[in-house]
Design brief:
With 302 residues, this protein is mainly beta. It has one domain: 6 Propeller (Neuraminidase). It is 7% helix and 43% strand. The longest helix has 20 residues, at 2-21. The chain is globular, with a radius of gyration of 20 Å.
Length: 302
C-alpha cells in the first residue's frame, strides 16, 4: 500500500512539474525602477496601465514630494509594449490617487479607481481613504473628462478594480460592502453588477464563498471563455498575492477558485493577470529579478 501511495504521489508530482514547464514567463523592456501595474487591454493592439511620470531629466516626477501615479498607454509589438505615452486626461478633473484603470469594451469610456476630491466630495460622515469607481468620456482636444462616480458606489464603502464580461453586460469589481447577504467576507470581495447602459447598473451581487475568502481579493479579469482570474492573499498561496481562477458554471455562478501554478505565481506578489485569447497575456509581479517595485511580464502557454 505504501508503494502504491508512493507511485501515485510521484505521478502527481510529475504532472505538476510538467504543467509548470508549459508556461513561459518573459521580462519586458518597458520595465524600469518605476512600478508598472493595473495593465488592461485597450482594443486589439494597445494596453493601458499605471506607472510614475518622468520629468525631462528622466527622474520620477513628484507632486508635493510624492510620486504621482499616471495612466499610460502603450502599443503591443510582438510580446513587448512600446511607445509609452501618458493618457490625455482633463487636468480640471483633479484625478489623483489612482489604483486601477480600465477601458470600456467599446473604447469610448475610461473607468478608474480613485479617492474622492473637491469635485465630488460626499456629504456626511465617510472615510476619506475609501476608493470608488468613476467613469469618464473622451473629448477631442481635452482628453478624458466629465468623470462621474458610478451610482452604486456608496461613500461608506470602498469599491475598485472594474472588469467587464466578454459581452459587456456585466461588470465585476471589488468592494468591502457590509451587511445583508451581499456582505464582503474579507477586506475586499469580488462583486458583479448588471450593466444596463447610460451609466445605469443593477444591484451589486457578491460572487460567494467559492470565489471570495476572508482575505483580500483584487484585480478581477474575465477571459473570453468566462473564466474569472483574480489575485488574493489568502492562506495556502506561494507567497504574498497569488493568481487564482474560477470557471463560470451554466447557471452563471462560479466554481471553487483554484490557484495557478508556478511560474505564473511566485514567492512574491503576483496580480493584474490578463489573458489575450487563450494562450498568452500579461501580469504584474514583484518577483525576484525584476527592475522595479512591480514589473509587467509576458506569459505564454506552450
Amino acid at each position: 500500500m505504501r508503494f502504491l501511495c508512493f507511485l501515485v504521489t510521484a505521478f502527481l508530482s510529475f504532472l505538476v512539474h510538467a504543467q509548470n514547464e508549459t508556461y513561459t514567463i518573459s521580462k519586458l523592456d518597458i520595465n524600469d525602477e518605476r512600478p508598472h501595474f493595473s495593465i488592461n487591454f485597450n482594443g486589439d493592439n494597445k494596453v493601458v496601465y499605471l506607472s510614475y511620470l518622468l520629468n525631462k531629466n528622466g527622474k520620477i516626477k513628484t507632486v508635493l514630494g510624492v510620486p504621482a501615479l499616471t495612466i499610460f498607454e502603450g502599443y503591443i509589438d510582438g510580446n513587448e509594449i512600446i511607445n509609452e505615452m501618458p493618457l490625455l486626461i482633463d487636468s480640471k478633473q483633479d484625478i489623483t490617487n489612482i489604483s486601477s484603470v480600465k477601458m470600456s469594451p467599446d473604447g469610448k469610456h475610461l473607468y478608474i479607481t480613485v479617492t474622492y476630491n473637491k469635485r465630488n466630495m460626499p456629504e456626511g460622515n465617510f472615510n476619506e481613504k475609501n476608493f470608488h469607481i468613476e467613469v469618464g468620456e473622451y473629448k477631442e482636444g481635452v482628453g478624458y473628462t466629465n468623470f462621474k462616480v458610478l451610482p452604486f458606489c456608496e461613500p461608506i464603502y470602498s469599491y475598485g478594480h472594474p472588469a467587464f464580461s466578454p459581452d459587456g453586460k456585466t461588470m465585476y469589481f471589488i468592494a468591502n460592502i457590509r451587511g445583508g447577504s451581499e456582505s464582503a467576507r474579507g477586506a475586499s470581495d469580488i462583486f458583479k453588477v448588471a450593466v444596463l447602459g447610460e451609466n445605469n447598473f443593477g444591484a451589486p451581487e457578491n460572487l460567494g464563498t467559492e470565489v471570495n475568502s476572508y482575505s483580500k481579493e483584487m484585480y478581477p479579469f474575465i477571459a473570453q471563455n468566462n473564466t474569472l482570474y483574480f489575485a488574493s492573499n489568502r492562506p495556502g498561496g506561494f507567497g504574498g498575492y497569488d493568481i487564482y481562477m474560477s470557471k463560470m458554471k451554466e447557471d452563471g455562478s462560479f466554481g471553487k477558485a483554484q490557484k495557478l501554478p508556478e511560474p505564473i505565481n511566485s514567492r512574491q506578489d503576483d496580480f493584474c493577470f490578463i489573458l489575450n485569447g487563450e494562450n498568452s497575456g500579461y501580469l504584474s509581479s514583484q518577483r525576484n529579478g525584476g527592475k522595479g517595485e512591480d514589473d509587467i511580464y509576458f506569459f505564454s502557454l506552450n
